[in-house]
Amino acid sequence: MKSRGSRRGAPFWEQGTNKASGATREKAVKKLVLILFTFIMASSLIFAGGQKAQKSSVGGKFQLALLLRNTEEQFLIDYSDNISKLAAQQKVDLVVMDARNRDETQFNQLRTLLDDGCKYFVIIPCVSELSERMNRLIQAKGGAAVYSNIPPTTISLRTGKNFFFASSLEIAGGRCQAQLIADFFDKNTARAPGKILNMILILGRLGEPAQVNREAGLMAGLRARGYTVRIVAKETANWTSRQSNQKMNTWIASFRDRFNVVVAQNDDMALGAVQALIQNGMVKNDSRDGTGLSVPVFGFDATANAIASMKRNELYATVLPDAVAQSSTAFDLVYQVATGIYKPGNTAAGISAATSPVDEAPVNDISILSQCYLLPFIPIDKNSNYYRTH
Q1: N or C, fewer C-beta in 10 Å, the chain?
Q2: Rounded to whole angstroms, how far apart are CA atoms 279 and 282?
């Protein structure tokens, strides 16, 4: 039984009256339009480029977009958090977009932002080669971009002087990890007789610059310290703890007494290996050497979980690619360009541009050294200040 004065199928502004006044109807229509407009604007932010976006309030000095390959890795989370803090301090409008490791998604996000008038970008690309296509579009709009973590190609930096690389060289990170390993076995010589390391090496996603160059730096650094490396097992775990744990369990079943060190190219994979060692009873009561595991495990990234594991005498050591320092340098560079104060030779967040080439792209090209800002990796063991303060 329908109530009196209500008409089935009538719009909500007419329900409850047979003769809504024109003024009432007009007011209701305006309300409906406002609701629809709000919904559309919210949807455009949530689904721009097919992925989630976070946007600050409009009205700052300029709009900056942070394009991330994903928002799952702890380094990228820390990087994004610091950019957000700096943008708020400097009253810069910020859009953060997650490509979920999809090249074309990231490229389409950039194109949409450029079409909407955004010209300034900090980018952690899905792959290096994507930087060439992206920079051509940005250059056409008179914009600027700073790349971190995954390096842009040399060709992409040659697109224009408003394109930069602000990061740490992965080969240096590999050497830093080698230093930690050599320091451990120099103090515990009985655990590597003859300076021979029987290594399980857990790799990141194959072919990525971090995977290739961290491995190259690791091996070169260990050779320089007089160690011979014999690979017992080496395979990718695609930066994930789950895959690392699964593979480490398999390797323990096959090679339980044949390896004396586990090295992972990030902390998530290192912690997956740590858990496998614990699950398989490869622990010891004496942790005076810094680890309660029968085989030391070395990670990379100095995440909060890694530091917590070190404090439980599980993971032995890690390497810090300073997300705060990298993101601060990147933000300062793009801020200087956007506000018209950048000049070649300027420092950014206290960091000077490179002055001599090194054996890792893109910093191996003398013509773009002034566009490359390099930050050091920091070895983290229990003697480091970073460990004590985190």
Answers
A1: N
A2: 8
Report whether 178 contacts 225 (CB < 8 A): yes
| Runs of H (alpha helix) within the chain | 22-47, 74-89, 103-115, 130-140, 154-157, 170-187, 209-224, 241-255, 267-279, 304-311, 323-338, 385-389
**pLDDT, tens digit, 9 for 90 and up, residues 116-128:** 999 999 999 999 9
pLDDT recorded at residue 73:
83
Kindly state which CATH superfamily the domain 171-321 is placed in: Response regulator (3.40.50.2300)
Residue ranges of domains in the chain: 50-168+322-375, 171-321
> Over the stretch 261-309, which tens digit does the pLDDT of each residue have?
999 999 999 999 999 999 999 999 999 999 999 999 999 999 899 999 9
One CATH from 1.10.357.10, 3.40.50.1000, 3.40.50.2300, 3.30.460.40 for 50-168+322-375: 3.40.50.2300
Do 185 and 195 touch, CB atoms closer than 8 A?
yes
Quote the CA–CA distance of 63 and 225 in Å, as a whole number. 48
Q: Name the strand (E) or helix (H) holding 164.
A: strand 163-167
Tell me how far apart the alpha carbons of residues 205 and 252 are, in angstroms, rounded to a whole number.
22
- If one counts every other C-beta atom within 10 angstroms of the C-beta of residue 379, the result is 21
| Cα distances (Å, whole numbers) of residue 201 to 32, 50, 237, 251, 332 | 60, 36, 10, 11, 37
Taking residue 81's Cβ as centre, other Cβ atoms within 10 Å add up to 14
Rg of the chain's alpha carbons, rounded to an integer? 26
Other CB atoms within a 10 A radius of the CB of residue 26 amount to 12
Q: How far is CA 290 from CA 286, 295, 378, in A?
A: 9, 11, 18
User: Are 50-168+322-375 and 171-321 equal in CATH topology?
Assistant: yes
Q: Does the pLDDT value for residue 36 go beyond 80?
A: no
Query: In the prediction, which pLDDT does 269 show?
Result: 97
SS3 annotation, 304-327: HHHHHHHHCCCCCEEEEECHHHHH
Q: Cis peptide before 296, with omega less than 30 degrees from 0?
A: no
Triad 293, 299, 303: Cα angle to 5°: 110
Question: Of 337, 322, 299, nearest to 82 (Cα)?
Answer: 322
